[in-house]
Design goal:
Elements: E1 7-13, H1 36-48, E2 53-57, H2 71-76, H3 85-95, E3 100-106, H4 112-125, E4 130-135, H5 140-144, H6 154-172, E5 180-183, E6 188-190, E7 200-201, E8 206-207, E9 222-225, H7 230-239, E10 242-245, H8 250-266, E11 275-284, H9 288-300, H10 305-316, H11 331-337, H12 341-351, H13 357-365, E12 372-375, H14 377-389, E13 395-399, H15 405-420, H16 433-437
Parallel strand pairs: 1-2, 1-13, 2-3, 3-4, 4-9, 9-10, 10-11, 11-12, 11-13
Antiparallel strand pairs: 5-6, 7-8
Helix pairs in contact: 1-3, 4-6, 6-7, 7-8, 10-13, 14-15
């Protein structure tokens, strides 16, 4: 039987750390995160490994919920730096030719026309490689950078997001594929009968259109979304081409995979057309002992406990400065913060016990957010293969313990084994991200 080829996405931050908040302290880490060469080198490395896509997470504020101050985020490097992603992706487009490029944009603090134009432009300039990671944002710090006192509640954020995607999709479809004529002799540039106003008038948005960018090489840029709550999974089932999950163990992942595919089918979509991808770390060593020693250092040596609490407060929109590390996480605590309930429930399922503040803090700041594959290149490949073949996922969003070393080691040591087993491509078969993912270019719906 031919092996099922896994989807591989590189997970990036345009700042001083990876999703692992101690990454900047690793002795061989490159601290050139304020230079374009840094991002271009990493993207070229992932393209050399024939990854489907590299995408960038984002937040619209410095972590400032913990102690109602950004001081500890700045002091300990707990993600205080977030560069503008449009500029970063522009540089990567010029340095690569095949790998997909994705960015996070919020449906809570941007407008549909702005997002539609940004990603349509990126899709054209990259030759059809753009992806949008859709988020609803998470905390009051972000709200306060956009003239609001507090963040919208969970259900209202998703109501707004559904309408946002409707409006963006209509804008992407506002030009027919053959609208451009470009007849120099007659002077006719485009057919006005094939460029349409959108006239979206909804609860949250009013958008006339049409978009100022013609329909793109992919028809619509690919959509990536992460949502662990019930509303989040429903949203992903309706809209996503790639679903980004945070399942820490294989049994939890298998349950999530089954549930998510059932939700996709219930919307009338083909579950095989959507890739379900847990975030994972790979700690690779020339021997098992070397890999395990590296893992120990990542878990124990480089993350300051206050950095953990700073990031935990950010993601749950709740000030954990008022608690000790060994305090239990209560229902009242989660409700008071209005935070990401799915995070606490996922950690509870994984540990099979009630969780403490320390458990959640470790989950956010170290290597506990998803599967951690540790060992020799062959052992890491074995573990990844097990997840894919046992219906835990369709591939992985690979996070880095340090940059660029973690990706360089994976591409040099693990990718050739996965390619030999038929689990990763040796060459790109097409030119667009949808080609890489094996999903069709969508027809216009407007």
């Amino acid at each position: 039987m031919t092996p099922r080829q896994m989807t591989m996405v590189g997970f990036m931050q345009a700042g001083n750390v990876t999703v692992y908040s101690g990454s900047w302290r690793y002795p061989s880490a490159d601290l050139g995160f304020l230079t374009m060469d840094y991002y271009q080198h990493i993207a070229r490395t992932l393209e050399q490994g024939r990854f489907d896509c590299v995408f960038f997470d984002d937040r619209l504020a410095m972590p400032g919920v913990y102690g109602n101050s950004v001081a500890d985020a700045v002091r300990y490097g707990a993600r205080p730096i977030k560069l503008d992603l449009t500029a970063v992706l522009g540089g990567i487009i010029g340095a690569t030719s095949r790998i997909g490029i994705g960015a996070t944009y919020s449906t809570t603090y941007y407008d549909p026309f702005h997002v539609a134009r940004t990603f349509a432009t990126l899709d054209h300039l990259s030759g059809g490689r753009a992806a949008w990671n859709v988020v609803t944002s998470v905390n009051d710090s972000e709200a306060q950078n956009f003239g609001l006192e507090s963040h919208l509640d969970h259900d209202e954020r998703y109501d707004r997001a559904h309408e946002f995607l409707d409006a963006v999709g209509a804008l992407w479809d506002s030009w027919e594929d053959d609208a451009l004529i470009l007849d120099r002799e007659s002077g006719e540039f485009a057919d006005p009968a094939k460029v349409h106003e959108v006239n979206h008038d909804g609860t949250y948005f009013s958008v006339r259109g049409p978009l100022t960018v013609p329909r793109t090489p992919q028809g619509r840029p690919a959509i990536l979304q992460a949502g662990s709550s019930g509303r989040g999974r429903e949203f992903a089932a309706r809209w996503a081409d790639m679903i980004f999950t945070a399942d820490p163990g294989l049994p939890v992942a298998q349950q999530h995979y089954k549930d998510q595919r059932e939700r996709i089918a219930a919307t009338g979509r083909d579950p095989d057309s959507v890739k379900i991808l847990p975030m994972a770390y790979a700690v690779v060593g020339e021997t098992q002992a070397i890999a395990e020693e590296k893992e120990r250092l990542f878990l124990d040596a480089y993350v300051h406990p206050v950095a953990s609490l700073t990031l935990l407060s950010e993601v749950m929109n709740y000030d954990f400065a008022q608690h000790d590390l060994d305090d239990p996480v209560t229902e009242d605590m989660m409700a008071a913060g209005g935070g990401i309930r799915g995070l606490a429930e996922g950690v509870r399922r994984h540990l099979d016990r009630e969780v403490t503040v320390r458990d959640l803090a470790a989950h956010r700041a170290t290597l506990l957010q998803g599967p951690r594959f540790v060992g020799t290149p062959g052992r890491v490949a074995d573990q990844m293969q097990e997840w894919v073949e046992s219906e835990g996922c369709d591939g992985f969003v690979l996070a880095a313990t340090h940059l660029p070393g973690a990706f360089e080691e994976f591409v040099r040591m693990v990718v050739p084994i996965l390619q030999e087993r038929g689990l990763m491509r040796r060459e790109y078969a097409g030119t667009t991200l949808r080609d890489h993912l094996g999903i069709e270019r969508p027809p216009r719906t407007l």
